[in-house]
Amino acid sequence: MTLGARPALYLGSRGLAFAWHGPLGPMVARYDTWSREQPSLVRGLGHPGADLPVTPEPYVTSAGLVVVWCEEDGAWASCLDLEGGAEDGPRLVLPGAARIAVAPRAEGATLFGADELGIQSVELDARGAPLREPARRVTETRAPATLSAASLRDEGLCVAVHTGDPEWTALSVRDGAGATVRHRHRRPVDDARVRSVGGRAAVLLTSDAEIELALVGPGGKVIERPHTVFPVGTGRLAWPDAVWVDDHWVVLARDVEAGVLRAHPLSPKGTAFTFPRCDGAFAAAYRSQAYYALEIEPKGDDAELRLFRCGKTGEQQQQRVDTVPNPDARALHQRRAIRRSLAALADQLRRARGYRDSALRPALGREGSTLELVDDRGRLTVSARPDPEEGVSLRVASALGEEAELEAAPSSLVRLAAWVRRRFSAAAREALEARRAWAEALAVDLGARLEGVERAGTTVVLDLHLDALPHAEALQSWLRRLRDAQTDGP
Description:
The protein is α+β, with helices and mostly antiparallel strands and about 500 residues long. The chain is built from four helices and 34 strands. It has helices at about 330-350, 410-425, 425-445, 470-490, and strands at about 10, 15-20, 25-30, 40-45, 55-60, 65-70, 75-80, 85-95, 100-105, 110-115, 120-125, 135-140, 145-150, 155-160, 165-175, 175-190, 190-195, 200-205, 210-215, 220-230, 235-245, 250-255, 260-265, 275, 285, 290-300, 300-310, 320-325, 365, 370-375, 380-385, 390-400, 450-455, 460-465. The strands form eight sheets. Strands 29-30-31-32-34-33 form a six-stranded antiparallel β-sheet. The protein has a four-stranded antiparallel β-sheet with strand order 1-2-3-4, with no helix packed on it. A four-stranded antiparallel β-sheet has the order 5-6-7-8, with no helix packed on it. A hairpin with a 2-residue loop joins strand 33 (about 450-455) and strand 34 (about 460-465). The protein is elongated, with a radius of gyration of 28 Å. The protein starts with 7 loop residues before the first strand and ends with a helix.
C-alpha cells in the first residue's frame, strides 16, 4: 500500500514532531528523540467528522507544539503541551480555508490558506492565535490551489500551484504587507514544494514526473530560473523534498519503479546516495550531520511510522519501523458517529414535509454533538456524548412557546425546593411520579434507558442512555412524538 498524502515533519531541538491525515481525521505525534521507543504525544485534532482530508501543519515555539489543520469552515489551530497535556484551543484562525501552508518562525508563523475565492494569509503568535485580521492576497474564482510555505528570516513565503497550469505563484508577506509574483513555466506544473535557508528558498516543481528547482529570494523574485535536478534516465520520480546540507541543497525523491529514495546534491561537494526503501509520500530533514526521511501509513486506527536516518554521505543507514498507537481511537469513532447521526437527522428534518415539520429549522453545532431545532411550537435541542463506559448519553431539552428559550436544567436550589415539596406534599409526589412514568414511556419508545427527567418553566429535559443513536428517521419520528406528548403535558 502506498501513501497518498505527504506527512508534515518538524525536527529540532525540541524533538521530532509529525502530523498526518488518517481515517479518523488529522493526527499529530511527537518523539523526544530519534531513539525514543514511545511517543510523548499522540493526539487527534479538532472536531471529529468536520475535518477535510488535508495534512495538518505542526511547528514548535516556546509555548509548545502548534498544529494547524482544516475543517469544513476553515483552518483551525491548537497549541499543545509538548508532553501531550494541556491544550490551548482549538480556535478558528482562517475562515474558509480548504488548503493550508505554514511559514513558521521562532515565536510565530504566517499561515496561508486557499479557498474557492483565492488565497488569504494571517499572522499567528506563539500559541497559534491570530495577531490581526486575515488579508486576501490572491483573488480568483476556481478550485483551491495547492500550497507550500517557508520563512525567509522575517518574511513568509508561499508557493501556490493549480495542477496542470503552466505557471506557479510566489506570495510573500512581511509586517502585514504582501507581494504576489506569477511565474510562467515551460510545461504544466503538477505540484510544488518550497524549503528555505536564511534569505533564500528552493522551489521544487514537479511536471510529468520531471523535477526542477528554482531559487527564490525576498518578495518572491526568482534568483535562479528552474532547471532539472536529476540526471536524464534516473527514472520516474515523485514527492520531491529539499534539505540544506552545510552549504548546498540536496534534493530527495522517490524512485517509483525501484521503490527507493534517491538523494541528489546540487553541488560537487555533496554525495549522491540511495535509501533502500520508499513506499510513497515522505518528508525529509537534515540536522546535526544526519539526513532523516519520514513516512507514515495508516494501519487501522493506528499508524505505521517508517523513519530513516544516515550520515551526510549516506553512510551508517538506519531504519526504524514502529506502530504509533492512537489512544483517542475509541472516542474519535464515537464522536464521528454522533456527528454523522445528528447531521443525518438535520438533513432529514430539512427534507421533511409532514405534520408540523415544514417549519423546522435545524442547526448542527460546530462541535457536531448538539442539534438545535426551531419549529412553530418552540425550541428543542438534542445533545449527545460518548458514555465513558459504553453507549451514548443523550440529552433532549424541549421548550414550548413562540418566544421559548431553552432554559438550563434546574439549579441545585430549584431541585432543593422541589425535594421539599415532594417530601411534604402528596400532590407533588404524585405529579413527580406521573412525570417519571411519562418520561419512562418515551424512553422505552426510543429503546433507551431513562437517566433523569427535569422540568423548569416551559422546558422539559430528558437524560437518556442508548447503546447507539437510532437512525435519523426513527429519531425524527420520536422527537415529533415527544413534542406532541409535551403539548398534552407530562
